[in-house]
Amino acid sequence: MAEMSDMQIDVDEYSRINEKAKCTFRLLDLLGASETRSAFINGLQARSAEITDARDYFKPPSQFERDEFAKRKFESAVKEYSTLISILKQSVSDRCQPELSVFNFTVYAAIFADFCYNDQFDLARDFLEKFLPIQECYYESIIEEFSLVLDEQDVQFCLPLRELKSNRIVVRLSRESISEFRELIKSLPLISDIVEARFELDTSDEPARSYETVERYRGYLLGEAPLKMMKTKVYSGIFKDQALPILADDSTRFFDIDGDLEKPKKKKSKSKDSTTTRKQKADPNAPAWGRIPFGQLSDTWKLKRHQMLSEINRKPKANVELRPTAIFYAVENSDEAIDAITTSEDCKLLFLGYSNSSITMRSLNEEPLPTLKRAEELESLNIDSDDIYTEMLEANPTEVEYVLTGHTGEIYSLSYHEEKHMLLSCSQDKSIRLWNLLTRDNLVAYHYDVCEPTDVQFSTFGSYFVSGYFDGAVCLWALDRPSPLRVMLGHYDLVGRVRFHPNCNYVASCSEDRAVRIWDLLNGQCVRLFTGHKASVQALEFSYDGRWLASGGEDGRVLVWDIGSGKMMHDFINHRGIVYSLAFTRDSRVLASGGTDRNIVIKSLVSQNSSTVVNDTNLLSSTAHSREHTFGVEAASAQYLRFSLRNVLFAFGGV
Fold first, then answer.
1. For position 169, which CATH number holds?
2. Spatial contact of 497 and 510, defined as CB atoms under 8 Å apart
3. pLDDT in tens, 94-118
4. What band does 11 get if pLDDT is binned at 50, 70 and 90?
5. Out of 11, 143, 383, 569, which residue is the most buried by the measure of CB atoms under 10 Å away?
């Protein structure tokens, strides 16, 4: 390698000298300095006389020489990688072996990529096949993508290879493990060069981790999240008026976002109860209200928020000890496949997106769907009326279902906004459409022309929405702008789900690249990277208190993360198929998951001997006994889950 590199430098130097000479000749000709030109030529000839034939000296290696060099490199790679595997199994200390075991696949992938980048595809394939049997089974799909690379063009379409070329593999090690690893690769020059060029060894001050802990975070091609990223401050708290109210009697106070206090009528009591006068404390981890500009909140929004919090205040606590109530809706006899499902906050309205590009809006309680009155009727209304918003609407007593048309491709995702009575839909036709449900009109179509959108969601505050795309992009939009405000890049494969944090300062995304990311909307930076899924991630959901983020994958796992610390708090394996849907109860104490195995699992997130939400001191692992209930659904898989304000679980699926 060194000889070829030196030769290339000499050839480049020869070219530069030759070009410089030509420029000098042209300059001397312009100046008319013929004698100087002759002297320069004589000097150059005298200098080149030391080399009998410069062209032969600087001649690039022949194809035979390149093949021989590649062959020797392949033999060295096989020998060194075999030695590395042997050392990792036999010569490494017991304390460091779990952490250093991650180099089994990562070095394997890096050597394969190095052969491909040098157009040595036959050798790359031979190396891939030779050591395939010793790789972990959950890397099988990535290795399968590697095996399809046969030429330079295939490299451009292999997403894992493209990612390895532009990013380093992050390996988190204790100081003891790093010291031991550097010592053992001193005798492996080829692997040492690859580690130096393609790896980032992240030093942790903590002791070496156990095999169980290391294995919990494996699965992502590029290793783990850098420690620097995970130490970034994340405001995981929620605004004061969003916080779940203190469960007291009817005299509990509610505060709106502007700090206005609303007092219900006081009840007569013989003695004062401190719980009735407690103010709802602001979350110290909540961001400042103006950190992201949301604009002025309407009176309608405040009223609905107050009503919702009042409803939540009357709910029973989520209790897995008792079998919870679950209602499953199966859509039968549909001519087209159902690809998108969402509901209103109170679970009274259902929205279905079909593969034939149509969208159905249906009332679940058989109440007629409201529409806006005609213009001449609106003109006659008294705008000063307290019930003006109600008076603007009318309803056909027989209309409980309506179909929206406008897309020309399969519907991928839907999102409903309670206050605005609007619906967002994204489709295979590369558009995101905004619908006014009171007039049944398509107001605008948003386009990100690079590729198709995969998911879309409204923000709770302001007029924002977020979308994910097939190329791995995550975009933040404003309703009044035709183009994205932010385009956040980091995923290298399709983004399956995007979700706003309850405080709307952050957005989470999950991808088929097996990673979950959290983005700060203030600057578009990735502030959290969660790894651990062994296959693509298909489901994502924030808890209502803003502290937790749950993800479900094709591997049947459900992982729960603490957003503030970046730690994995739970690792549940309750499904035998893909996990498609997740839902938290309103108090964030219970998590429900639905999958293709047609099971709905309701899992407690509280410790066995405590009524408080579990923290990192009493983490529930996948093997620990936890309170749960499983509902078997014969009709269909649960594509969508939501807990109502009273913690009744609503589940939906298409037959």
1. 1.25.40.500
2. yes
3. 999 999 999 999 999 999 999 999 9
4. very low
5. 569
Same structural domain for residues 99 and 127? Answer: yes
Which of the listed residues 12, 27, 56 is the one where a domain comes to its end?
56
**Main-chain phi, psi angles of 309, to 5 degrees:** -65, -35
Shared domain for 95 and 18, answered yes or no, is: no
Q: Is residue 274 part of a domain?
A: no
How much is the pTM? Answer: 0.83
Looking at the fold, whether 127 and 41 belong to one and the same domain comes out as no
Task: Please report, to the nearest 10 degrees, the dihedral formed by the alpha carbons of residues 162, 507, 548, 598 taken in order.
Answer: -70
203 in the same domain as 102:
yes
Which residue range(s) make up the domain with 18? 2-56
Contacts of 531 (CB under 8 A, 6+ apart): 217, 218, 219, 220, 223, 224, 225, 514, 515, 516
List, as one string, the DSSP characters of 530-588. E---SS-EEEEEE-TTSSEEEEEETTSEEEEEETTT--EEEEEE--SS-EEEEEE-TTS
Domain for residue 285, yes or no? no
CA distance 450 to 470: 9
- Indicate if 162 and 24 belong to the same structural domain: no
Do 33 and 150 share a domain, yes or no? no
Exposed, middle or buried, 483 (CB in 10 Å: 0-12/13-18/19+)? exposed
Q: Contact, 217 vs 531, CB < 8 A? A: yes
What is the pLDDT confidence band of residue 368, given thresholds at 50, 70 and 90?
A: confident
Residue 88 lies in a domain: yes
Residue 365 near residue 400, CB atoms below 8 Å? no
Read off the pLDDT band of 24 (50, 70, 90): low
- Over the stretch 325-362, which tens digit does the pLDDT of each residue have? 889 999 888 889 999 999 998 899 999 999 999 999 99
Give the per-residue pLDDT at 270: 44
Identify which of 259-268, 537-546, 621-630, 639-648 has the greatest average pLDDT.
537-546
Domain contains 189: yes
Say what the pLDDT of residue 289 is. 87
Q: How many domains does the chain have?
A: 2
Q: Are residues 139 and 36 in the same domain?
A: no
DSSP per-residue string spanning 396-407: -TT--EEEE---
User: Is 85 in a helix, a strand, or coil?
Assistant: helix
Q: Where are the alpha helices (DSSP H) in 91-131?
A: 97-100, 103-117, 121-130
CA angle 238, 241, 245 (to 5 degrees): 95
* Residue 626: both structure tokens together: 């936890």
**Rounded distance between C-alpha atoms, residue 525 and residue 529, angstroms:** 11
Alpha helices in 380-524 (DSSP H): 388-391
Burial of 601 by CB count in 10 Å (0-12 exposed, 13-18 middle, 19+ buried)? buried
91 and 15 in one domain? Answer: no
Given 161, 189, 224, the domain boundary residue is 224
